[in-house]
Amino acid sequence: IIRSIVRGCGGYLPARTLTNAELAGMVDTSDDWIVQRTGIRERHIAADGELTSDLAVAAARRALDAAGLEPQAIDLIVLATATPDHTFPASAVTVQAKLGITQGAAFDMQAVCSGFVFALATTDSMLRTGGFSRALVIGSETFSRILDWTDRTTCVIFGDGAGAVVLEATPQSGTLADRGVLAARLRSDGRHKDKLYVDGGPSATRTVGFLRMEGREVFRHAVGMMCGAVEDVLAATGTTAADIDWFVPHQANQRIIDASAHKLGIGPEKIVSTVALHGNTSAASIPLALDHAVADGRIKPGDLVMVEAMGGGFTWGAALIRW
Ligand code: ACO
């Protein structure tokens, strides 16, 4: 059978960091409040003129380097983002052009913070059905551009960044020992669409708008939804939480991460967390965390890696990868 194998990953963070102390000078908040409620200490902010596609290209180049591949080897680009450069075309085609790729297909995927898991599952399907051979799956966001910098309940939480993985269709034996994406499960429930949304958009207001969030409502649903998706993936693959080597959740905040791992029975030593340094980078958070844990030697070939996310919509999902 064909599996989508991870050939390499890469991340990119804008140079400018914004600390909690700096935020305390902008809105009525404190380092203590932000650290205790979210675990976030600093986040990166894109420079003026530095676009989602620029971040994506930087992450993609690092992933291609890690894979030992030239851009021309890629025939599919799926870019998860809720903050595209423009309403259209898809920022993925800008990434394609900036990388000098003239073959294959490129499109954006919109599932907000779950975007990377949705993009991973979609790309995996497209690779396994044979139409494409090598893909860049990218999460890239410039949430700083849709934040209301006077709203302390949201502006302290998010940051900018991008992460990418190269997936390659490869014949495998069809067992749990196979490398690649072993299973993924995606869910959405639009009844929750007004709990985390942007109050602008081309059709509704002809404006870009600002992010609005009922933080407590998001928190209330997040752990149960994400754990449900993880349990479905475990059941689909005949594995248990004990089999997982690394748990790489969407980096929304440390309390959600810890509560999810606890509920699933995953030990704290298996959690990859970057939220302290990156904040919530939406669709970029998982590939950035993967890159972080590969770079520091934690995630190694053969490891079983569980990724999971939840975001606006609500959307949520999980995927199990043999690295
Ligand atoms: N600094 C200081 N005080 C603040 C701040 C701030 N930045 N923000 C809110 N407060 C105040 C509130 O005004 C409130 O004051 P009040 O009691 O006088 O009314 C008080 O702190 C408590 O507010 P709550 O909203 O109840 O605080 P809570 O403990 O729920 O923490 C938080 C808020 C961190 C947003 C939490 O709800 C959360 O983590 N929610 C999940 C949101 C999330 O992760 N969203 C990301 C997108 S979705 C995803 O990625 C999963």
Give your account of this protein's structure.
With 323 residues, the protein is an alpha/beta fold. The protein folds into 2 domains: 2-171, Thiolase/Chalcone synthase (Peroxisomal Thiolase, Chain A, domain 1, 3-Layer(aba) Sandwich), CATH 3.40.47; 180-322, Peroxisomal Thiolase, Chain A, domain 1, CATH 3.40.47. Helices cover 32% and strands 26% of the residues. The protein is built from 10 helices and 13 strands. It has helices spanning 20-24, 31-38, 52-67, 91-98, 115-128, 152-155, 215-237, 254-264, 275-278, 285-295, and strands at residues 2-12, 16-19, 42-45, 76-80, 105-109, 134-142, 160-171, 180-188, 196-198, 211-213, 246-249, 304-311, 315-322. It has a 5-stranded mixed beta sheet, sandwiched between helices. Strands 8-13-12-11 form a 4-stranded mixed beta sheet, sandwiched between helices. Strands 2-3 form a two-stranded antiparallel sheet. Strand 12 and strand 13 (315-322) form a beta hairpin. The radius of gyration is 18 Å and the shape is globular. The chain starts with a strand and ends with a strand. The relative contact order is 0.20. The mean pLDDT is 98. Residues 29, 33-34, 37-38, 113, 152-153, 156-157, 196, 213, 215-216, 218-219, 222, 250, 252-253, 280, 310-311 line the site of acetyl coenzyme *A. Residues 107-190 form the Beta-ketoacyl-[acyl-carrier-protein] synthase III N-terminal domain. InterPro entries: ACP_syn_III_C, ACP_syn_III_N, FabH, Thiolase-like. One of its GO terms (molecular function) is beta-ketoacyl-acyl-carrier-protein synthase III activity.
